[in-house]
């Protein structure tokens, strides 16, 4: 049987199951009553891992939650089509399909073979975690012109092989491999 977790024991970044859906605690606030006989309440700000919705809900300290059946597996990106994006689980070698709404704009930074972390709930893929940085080749960028730094802007736009555009320093040329931080989508250095 799954272990039960008291609401008062839920802390930031913990996972729990509520109303048959997995949640991640974003913030927990405990309010203890000043009067005798009053109940201790726990206000949780939590994200539904299936819908990505964030809600605030107040629970009694003794309310119980199950631990969700969550696991993270390493997978490599294969390809995408109209039905979704496909990944190869690196342990079981099964193909995992993630729908376009789960993928959001992650495809802007994915090349075939890129290793990612796929989050699974009850054995089904529900989310994706990109690596901290990815290496991509600059497909097109304007050549640097002497005196460009006078405008105060020392970066220029560069279109990468996946089609995404990022700001890069003036010295970056077409064909160069660069590192891009996946969270901020900013230039992180030459590869």
UniProtKB/TrEMBL annotation:
CDD domains: S1_EF-P_repeat_2
Subcellular location: Cytoplasm
Residue stretches making up the Translation elongation factor P/YeiP central domain: 72-126
A GO cellular component entry from the record: cytosol
Record InterPro entries: Elong-fact-P_C (IPR015365), NA-bd_OB-fold (IPR012340), Rib_uL2_dom2 (IPR014722), Transl_elong_fac_P/YeiP (IPR020599), Transl_elong_KOW-like (IPR013185), Transl_elong_P/YeiP_cen (IPR001059), Transl_elong_P/YeiP_CS (IPR013852), Transl_elongation_fac_P (IPR011768)
One GO term of the biological process aspect: peptide biosynthetic process
Gene Ontology molecular functions: translation elongation factor activity
Domain Elongation factor P C-terminal, chain residue ranges per copy: 134-190
Entry keyword annotation includes Cytoplasm: yes
Gene3D superfamilies membership: 2.30.30.30, Nucleic acid-binding proteins
Annotated coiled-coil segments of the chain: none
Record function comment: Involved in peptide bond synthesis. Stimulates efficient translation and peptide-bond synthesis on native or reconstituted 70S ribosomes in vitro. Probably functions indirectly by altering the affinity of the ribosome for aminoacyl-tRNA, thus increasing their reactivity as acceptors for peptidyl transferase.
Assigned protein family: Belongs to the elongation factor P family.
Entries under PANTHER family matching the protein: ELONGATION FACTOR P (PTHR30053), TRANSLATION ELONGATION FACTOR KOW-LIKE DOMAIN-CONTAINING PROTEIN (PTHR30053:SF14)
Protein name per Swiss-Prot or TrEMBL: Elongation factor P
Organism the protein comes from: Granulicella pectinivorans
Lineage summary: Bacteria, Pseudomonadati, Acidobacteriota, Terriglobia, Terriglobales
Gene (name only): efp
């Amino acid at each position: 049987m799954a272990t039960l977790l008291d609401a008062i024991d839920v802390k930031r970044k913990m996972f729990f199951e509520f109303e048959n859906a997995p949640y991640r605690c974003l913030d927990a606030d405990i309010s203890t009553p000043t009067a005798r006989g009053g109940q201790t309440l726990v206000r949780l700000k939590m994200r539904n891992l299936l819908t990505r919705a964030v809600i605030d809900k107040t629970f009694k300290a003794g309310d119980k939650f199950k631990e969700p059946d969550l696991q993270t597996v390493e997978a490599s990106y294969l390809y995408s089509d109209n039905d979704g994006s496909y990944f190869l689980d690196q342990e079981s070698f099964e193909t995992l399909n993630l729908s376009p709404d789960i993928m959001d704009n992650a495809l802007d930074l994915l090349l075939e073979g890129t290793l990612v972390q796929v989050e699974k709930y009850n054995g089904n893929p529900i989310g994706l975690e990109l690596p901290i940085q990815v290496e991509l080749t600059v497909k097109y960028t304007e050549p640097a012109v002497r005196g460009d730094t006078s405008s105060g802007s020392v970066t220029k736009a560069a279109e990468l092989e996946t089609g995404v555009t990022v700001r890069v320093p003036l010295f970056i040329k077409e064909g160069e491999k660069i590192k891009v931080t996946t969270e901020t989508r900013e230039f992180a250095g030459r590869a």
